[in-house]
Amino acid sequence: MSRSCQSARESRFDYSTIVHLKRGFIAGAPRQLLCQKPPCDQIDPTRKLRGILRGNKRMQNIFPFFSFHGFLVIIFCNSSQALRCLPQFSRDDRKLEIGDTIADGLVKAIQTSWFAVVILSENYATSTWCLEELRLIMQLHSEEQIKVLPIFYGVKPSDVRYQEGSFATAFQRYEADPEMEEKVSKWRRALTQVANLSGKHSRNCVDEADMIAEVVGGISSRLPRMKSTDLINLVGMEAHMMKMTLLLNIGCEDEVHMIGIWGMGGIGKSTIAKCLYDRFSRQFPAHCFLENVSKGYDIKHLQKELLSHILYDEDVELWSMEAGSQEIKERLGHQKVFVVLDNVDKVEQLHGLAKDPSWFGPGSRIIITTRDKGLLNSCGVNNIYEVKCLDDKDALQVFKKLAFGGRPPSDGFEQLFIRASRLAHGLPSALVAFASHLSAIVAIDEWEDELALLETFPQKNVQEILRASYDGLDQYDKTVFLHVACFFNGGHLRYIRAFLKNCDARINHLAAKCLVNISIDGCISMHILLVQTGREIVRQESDWRPSKQRFLWDPTEIHYVLDSNTGTRRVEGLSLHLCEMADTLLLRNSVFGPMHNLTFLKFFQHLGGNVSNLQLISDDYVLSRNLKLLHWDAYPLTILPPIFRPHTIIELSLRYSKLNSLWDGTKLLPNLRILDVTGSRNLRELPELSTAVNLEELILESCTSLVQIPESINRLYLRKLNMMYCDGLEGVILVNDLQEASLSRWGLKRIILNLPHSGATLSSLTDLAIQGKIFIKLSGLSGTGDHLSFSSVQKTAHQSVTHLLNSGFFGLKSLDIKRFSYRLDPVNFSCLSFADFPCLTELKLINLNIEDIPEDICQLQLLETLDLGGNDFVYLPTSMGQLAMLKYLSLSNCRRLKALPQLSQVERLVLSGCVKLGSLMGILGAGRYNLLDFCVEKCKSLGSLMGILSVEKSAPGRNELLELSLENSASSLGESQQASESYPL
């Protein structure tokens, strides 16, 4: 073969083999090792996976350094546009920064590689660069700093070992130059050393593809593996993995999936993302974990990091953010990638890195972790996984693992472990911080002291994590956050809205950033560690001087400020749990005078009673004109101060007070929404409330001396009225527009319930509960009762009935009418129709002596629970078999009932006390039923149950009867067996 042909063949090998080796290595190598420390270093899995190279003296690149000859091919590789998208490994193409020497570049490239692949071809020794590379490689190999795999392509190992053949020709030329004598000696030694290593020989392989597969496998098997995150030790992680696997849908190769992992700071979003990366990233040709995106880097820098890590090209240059976005689209648009963008906190970051799925090739998966759900929504990320706090059991398990390596606690520490784990309230980062802090403490009394501190003051590391979310808020959101943390945690949105104007959007912002949670029924809650963080911020704002704090909540600090009379205009709110006061405090009349901006004053106690450690000298004291909330349990005086101006008051709660009256005369109450004087047993009258045009809740429970209420309440649009146990009232008239009413008084001479008739509109009424001597008249239902309660539908998924919800009682979802005992002298209750109650899911008509159930009961197609116990019907309508959603039916104490209709859909059936019931054929249906729980106690006329048991055994595919109760149903199982208890089946 001619020299030119040999060179061409060698060049073709260099090009195709190197490219295929690279591609093969991408698929088989552990990419998470990219730019990692040597394996002897222990790397925290939560630390940066990207950019670790910075700041370390010697970092190593997992990808091999390829030493080979073929300069013309290198030029082709660098100029080919198609190859620009290939990952760029350490190589011998001399792509060096301007100003670097060749030797410096080679040293850096080789020293930062774990592995060297030396391709020894016939022309290898003709390149002094190749020989110098080999000398350095073998020097590092002798120092055990690099692994080496020789590939003998078209040459014999002996030719290399002894420098024969083409190698001899090259060395003859070098030895002719006296100045190269020392180098020649080192090169010969290096060639001998590399030839003595176990390698691959092209002549032993079927073809180049076979050789490439062997080489890639050999390299991958020898490379050290980065220790994967230990999923076994991460409590609850496998459950996260299962749910996220469904969202990732790895098997779908045609689409790009973008998934958000959302949750509060420190809850474990990054750890979940890291575990996903460990588990799935190797299934992708290219991947990158871009950690802590929010940590002060500009977007252009982040774009460069992303491209450098996926393309393995440290020389990516971007002139602007727009250029970076274009570069990502062009170079990654055809690549299948697995990318994690960790801790994204700005929309601009996501727009610059992954604005659209089309930026990446089909089958790509992009995971974004963030505290801000609004960010994901604004970028069109619809697949969002919410990470929630650990429950108490898992939290304790995590704490034990972290604190003492999972070892059983010493005597006396078990309860301390439980207490410490609960202080974290399920937040993983807090568990880590607490465990680290407490693990060095060995004495029980020191643990007690530290836990007492942690109950009040957030641990520094935890506070830093949570404070980051607060710092990212605008000023209005920060204000609402601090109000919730210090005053309104646990309150209803409707309630908070009354005190903080235009707060709905702010609350939603906080919820999107996982700083508050909004329950289905509208209650606002904040994680206790966020509450602690918010309160610590308030302390810091005042330089820890209580008299200048915006809000005060600590009993010791409040006691100091009130006792020393040092309050200032900076104080906006006081919230004191009276039960936490150790000593009695007598307040001066001037104590609230300096607090001109006092808006919220709350002295509360959880236990009823009018005894308090907080006393006033007289009623001649001054309250702020800005006061919106006055909540003072066990108020010690008989009347409010004469100069009290309640025009700004929204809530006035004076529970268990010593009040005889609130004030004299009429006062302007334009903003009053809640008036609560529960348990004020000396209160004889209410003031005129005609000016309280916005009053929504009037709570008078247990005001035993109250003899009348002002007639003006009939002109108010109350949402809630509670007059339970108001023994002095003789009669009550309830107005139409109520949402909730509670009355209980057997001595009431009259209860008149002015509800709209079936053709009218219920504009506000949603919940009602009354106990007393009640005459009830609802659409189709009329008679007397001892108890009436109902609630109405707020939302329904059944579109077919939504058009009915605006008229009459069509919106009721539950209805409960009963007498407290069955009457042998029947006072019939009329039950004519259920047509006006199509949304009922629960219906209870108990002890009403109803003689007939109307056939139109079949119209209650949403009904799930039906209790008709204590009524006098003999038969039930056959149409009940059409109630497809009915699961629970109770007919207990229906003494005249003789037979049942077909009820194969019912799962739980109670027939206790149905003394005349003789047959159960109705529930058998067509040889099948769904019973799980069946009670037939005291059914003395009932025949044998052998039929139902035989169906039980012979009806495959049907629910299994779990419990059968047969007390005092003597003949039920046949003559040979007395049934006297419940049988699990």
Automatic annotation (TrEMBL):
Q: What domain of life does the native source organism fall in?
A: Eukaryota
The record's InterPro entries line, in alphabetical order, gives: Disease_R_plants, Leu-rich_rpt_3, NB-ARC, TIR_dom, WHD_ROQ1-like
* One GO process term, biological-process aspect: defense response
Q: Could you tell me which residue ranges the TIR domain spans?
A: 58-223
Q: Which PANTHER family match?
A: ADP-RIBOSYL CYCLASE_CYCLIC ADP-RIBOSE HYDROLASE-RELATED (PTHR11017:SF501), LEUCINE-RICH REPEAT-CONTAINING PROTEIN (PTHR11017)
Q: Which Pfam families match?
A: LRR_3, NB-ARC, TIR, WHD_ROQ1
Annotated GO molecular function terms are: ADP binding; hydrolase activity
**What residue intervals traverse the membrane?**
62-83
Protein name as it appears in the record: Leucine-rich repeat 3
Q: Which UniProt keywords apply?
A: Hydrolase, Leucine-rich repeat, Membrane, Repeat, Transmembrane, Transmembrane helix
